[in-house]
Amino acid sequence: MTYRQTDYARQALLALILGAAINLPALGQEPVRLEAGMVFTTSVTVAPGVYRLPADSLGAIRVQGEGIVVDFNGAVLDGAAADATPDQFAGYGIVIDRSSHVTIKNAVVRGYKVGLIAYDTPHLKIDGGDFSYNYRQRLKSTIEREHLDDWMSYHLNDHDEWLGYGAAIYLNRCDRPTIRAVTVTGGQNGVMLTDVNHGLLEDNAITFNSGIGIGMYRSSYNAVLHNRLDWNVRGYSHGVYYRGQDSAAILVYEQSTHNTFAYNSATHSGDGFFLWAGQTTMDDGSGGSNDNLLVGNDFSFAPTNCIEVTFSRNTILGNRLEGCWHGIWGGYSFDTAIAGNTFIDNDEHIAIEHGQDIAITDNTFAGGKLGIYTWARDSQPADWGYAQHRDTRSRDYTIHRNRFAGVAEPLRILKTEPVSETENRIVAEADEAAPGLPEALPDWPASLPRGRRYMMVDAWGPYDFRSPVLWPRYPRDGVRQVFDIHGPAGAWRIAQTSGVDSVSARSGSVPDSIVVWRTDGPVVDLRIDLEYVGETVTDRFGVVTPAGTPYVYPYRHFHAAIDWTVDFFAYDDATEPRSRPEAFRALIAGTPAFTDHPTDLGYQWYGSPGHDLPANHFATVSTGTFAVPPGRYVLDLTSDDGVRVWLDGTLIHDDWTYHPPKLERIPLTLSGRHELRIEHFEIDGYATLVATLEQAAP
Fold this sequence. Notes:
Layout: E1 2-3, H1 6-18, E2 31-32, E3 38-40, E4 44-46, E5 50-52, E6 61-63, E7 69-71, E8 76-78, E9 92-97, E10 103-105, E11 108-110, E12 114-119, E13 125-127, E14 167-172, E15 178-180, E16 183-184, E17 191-194, E18 200-202, E19 205-206, E20 212-217, E21 223-225, E22 236-237, E23 241-242, E24 248-253, E25 260-262, E26 273-276, H2 279-284, E27 292-295, E28 305-310, E29 314-317, E30 320-322, E31 326-329, E32 334-339, E33 342-344, E34 348-353, E35 356-361, E36 364-366, E37 370-375, H3 385-389, E38 395-400, E39 403-405, E40 409-413, E41 419-422, E42 425-427, E43 457-458, E44 461-462, E45 469-472, E46 480-486, E47 490-498, E48 500-503, E49 507-509, E50 512-518, E51 523-534, E52 537-538, E53 544-545, E54 551-560, E55 563-570, H4 581-588, E56 594-596, E57 601-605, E58 618-640, E59 643-647, E60 650-655, E61 662-682, E62 687-695
Parallel strand pairs: 1-3, 2-4, 3-6, 4-7, 5-8, 6-9, 7-10, 8-11, 9-12, 10-13, 12-14, 13-15, 14-17, 15-18, 16-19, 17-20, 18-21, 20-24, 21-25, 24-26, 25-27, 26-28, 27-29, 28-31, 29-32, 30-33, 31-34, 32-35, 33-36, 34-37, 35-38, 36-39, 37-40, 38-41, 39-42
Antiparallel strand pairs: 22-23, 43-44, 45-46, 46-50, 47-49, 47-51, 48-50, 51-54, 52-53, 55-56, 55-58, 57-62, 58-61, 58-62, 59-60, 59-61
């Protein structure tokens, strides 16, 4: 349906004809109740309320025209079907197409694949509003083990490939937008820009999402100012793995130039700032994501890099870079200025391979293993376009007036010349306080801690401290487990347990920690109900429990030990698994190249699996026995390439094909002792075989 304010138009015309003094409200201010499929072509104010509006790619609500102001007045657009999980959200909430000077105010949009999407709409203004709790993947990495299914890739978006990961706000070809005072949490990606220039993103809070805070692709001359972009992260388990899986507070890709990023808090994200020149540069050496300015930001506590800038020319001034693997990773960067920054306790503060014309001046380095590290490799790949068109020597560094305090190795300069080093000061101990946070940053919330140990990522992304949580502090491979208790201020008690022998305490105040001794055995089925009473609770899906109301956090961990025997084989054209099935079966019935005995079937290969096997054309046969109590289960299986699965001799899954990493969830009803057999082959490229037995959801 289309709302065109025809009643107002008729009354205004009547007033003109009769000369009557009719008291008309301002155009666009009559509150309108929303219906799915509405198209607004003139300004309107929406009546407050919660609107359940499922949608497809056409959008629940469409806006099209020029000079339109739509004030949603706090109205909630909710596209989620009953009982749908965030990885099932679909459709677009608000769609704006081929318009100009449109203003969207005070909208609350949740439960969609994309909250708001706009094409070909210059001068778009998004003023306030909450675009939280839209699409996010269900992550498969655990505290104990990373899962490569969770890796994202943003290298291509010329055909809107980014939409596969969802977004709170997605703009394409929308020059000169303004996005101000918007909130995004509990999703995957925040604000994603493609072919967007001369925009302003200011005073937004895009935090605790599992992918990207702000992303740019072929987008230039934008200003990103004074935003809070913290805890946009995945792929991290403290003390176990720190990968980030291409999450970032700020992502700048593919020829995005002349952007300014100033006074943003962009901490506790996969990368604080992740810039890549783009495939164009990789292929022919031209261009880059050049001439971007990073000034006065806090990019601390990323599991990977506070700042990554590669194959490009940029300026990095006065930022705080603390507690990361690399403070700055700058591979193949050139004509880059790094000045006045504060580096604290990074493993490597600045690491640049094949950099050229780099000025590193007036920085403070405190703690950490390595201060400034430059180097070059002996050769470049012969078929790499960039190296064919560009000088790739490591050369022409200026390292002046820097202070190194307590840095184990201040300088490591390898295969790099010339290098000018003057007026640098090196002291053995970090005996002076490092400069504090830039004053213009957004205020850090008093309720939030700082440090990588507080990045706690589960199946739905980073924990946000707004609800109680019982968090395992170490991998769960023993009967003794330490748990941290985080959340709003309040009191906790253990209301109920199962599979527990004893606990160190049964009540206390948040924050806290306890030790749990679980019941020993081949099957771990640990259940702890933690009851909390205290401040208002907002759970991971946006559901609010008022202050003083008891809230139960159910901790569950199931693990069935499977004793695996994995035989490895090399095959050739004569024993190819698909075209020569009988020969292949004879091959795997014979003597394997080698045998492995893992307790966890979680293989991920980038090359040869070892023991002189080839990187391509190998096969595995995995057999495992286990025992479980009666119930419904799921075999979570990821394969690349072909795979077949038997349970107690019965074929239950057959995908004997050449395919990229593919996830299957195979439902099972089990009781007692069983045997699994998994046959798998790899043709070429990346290879994986991961199988985990889980309890089915109640």
